[in-house]
Amino acid sequence: MLEITLADYHNPRHRQAVVAMLDDYSRDPMGGGTALPEATRQNLVDEMAKREHVFSLLAFVDDEAVGLANCVEGFSTFAAKPVMNIHDIAVTKAFRGQGIAKRLLEEVATLAQFRGCCKLTLEVLQGNEPAKIAYEKFGFAPYQLDEAMGKAEFWQKSL
After folding, report:
1. DSSP string spanning 46-114?
2. CB 137 within 8 A of CB 106
3. Are 69 and 86 in contact, with CB atoms under 8 Å apart?
4. Confidence bin at 94 (pLDDT 50/70/90)
5. Are 82 and 118 in contact (CB under 8 A)?
6. Other CB atoms closer than 10 Å to residue 108's CB: what's the count?
């Protein structure tokens, strides 16, 4: 039986599940293919708990954590409303293809609507075709303001 729950960052079971799920995702080729650094494992949940605009959803099947969505609320200056970014979404390999990511996305959308968000955002690697198909089925599409200017790209600069 699938249960989606809002993670309580003070609950030891939830804390462990958030770290374990993110580490599992990090070890996957779509998450970079390496384990989370020990400092991240030790500090992640405490740092997330300090931020009121961050939340995690956990998916459990028979008390086993099998899915995770880490979300960060931002702000759209064009809409003058909050935006919900799905920073991480992952399902363990053994449970993929069972609709768990869709259920997580539905819960994120519900919470985002409750918070007055105008849209959901996420990133996806070009080569992650299964995820892109799932996101498109859910209603996501590449972002662009003006077709002549092309699609937006996600860039980063490490500090």
Report:
1. HHHHT-TTEEEEEEEETTEEEEEEEEEEEEETTTTEEEEEEEEEEE-GGGTTSSHHHHHHHHHHHHHHH
2. no
3. yes
4. very high
5. yes
6. 24
pTM for the whole structure? 0.94
Please give the DSSP secondary-structure letter assigned to residue 118: S
* Residue pLDDT, tens place only, 51-92: 999 999 999 999 999 999 999 999 999 999 999 999 999 999
Model pLDDT for residues 14-46, shown as the tens digit of each residue: 999 999 999 999 999 989 999 999 999 999 999
**CA separation, residue 104 to residues 30, 71, 78 (Å):** 18, 11, 27
The three-state secondary structure class of 3 is: strand
CA 48 to chain centre: 13
Q: Tokens standing for 109?
A: 């959308």
- 48: burial class by Cβ within 10 Å (0-12, 13-18, 19+)? middle
Residue 82's DSSP bridge partners are 75
